[in-house]
Amino acid sequence: QAHLVESGGGSVQAGGSLTLSCVFSTDIYSSYCLGWFRQAPGKEREGVATVDRFGRTDYADSVKGRFTISRDNAKATLDLKMSSLKTEDTAMYYCARAIGSSCAMDQQLYNYWGQGTQVTVSS
């Protein structure tokens, strides 16, 4: 049984938009910090955005002003709205749940991961 299931990836031209979604099993959702991470070919996985149970958000500098993370606690879902996409946003995107309620971009603090969804941005 998958605890997190992502959807919404795909191919888009630079300047376009995509929305990624993640559905959590309710037994692991609760009050934990949630985040989106990404990994481009040949690069380390990096944090993209996080949101705590109160809706407070944090973003990597590279996506600020372009991406919006949100959660729906009633539905146990997590979204990432991406706009003004750039070719350098091309990566596998993962949703994740942190060990605790406090948020940070450190992937070591996340113990549940989705299977990933590919985002490809072409010029």
Return Rg in Å.
13 Å
Mean pLDDT: 95
Number of strands: 11
What about the largest sheet?
Answer: 7 strands, mixed
Please state the structural category: mainly beta
Distance between the termini: 38 Å
Describe the protein's architecture and organization.
The protein has 123 residues and is mainly beta. Helix content is 3%, strand content 49%. It has one helix at residues 26-29; strands at residues 4-7, 10-13, 18-24, 34-39, 46-51, 57-59, 67-72, 77-82, 91-98, 110-113, 117-122. Strand 5 (46-51) and strand 6 (57-59) form a beta hairpin. The chain starts with a strand and ends with a strand.
Please describe the structure with a list of short key phrases separated by commas or semicolons.
7-stranded mixed sheet; 123 residues; globular; mainly beta; single chain; 11 strands
Question: Layout of SSEs?
Answer:
Layout: E1 4-7, E2 10-13, E3 18-24, H1 26-29, E4 34-39, E5 46-51, E6 57-59, E7 67-72, E8 77-82, E9 91-98, E10 110-113, E11 117-122
Parallel strand pairs: 2-11
Antiparallel strand pairs: 1-3, 3-8, 4-5, 4-9, 5-6, 7-8, 9-10, 9-11
Quick structural overview:
With 123 residues, the protein is mainly beta. The chain has one helix and eleven strands.
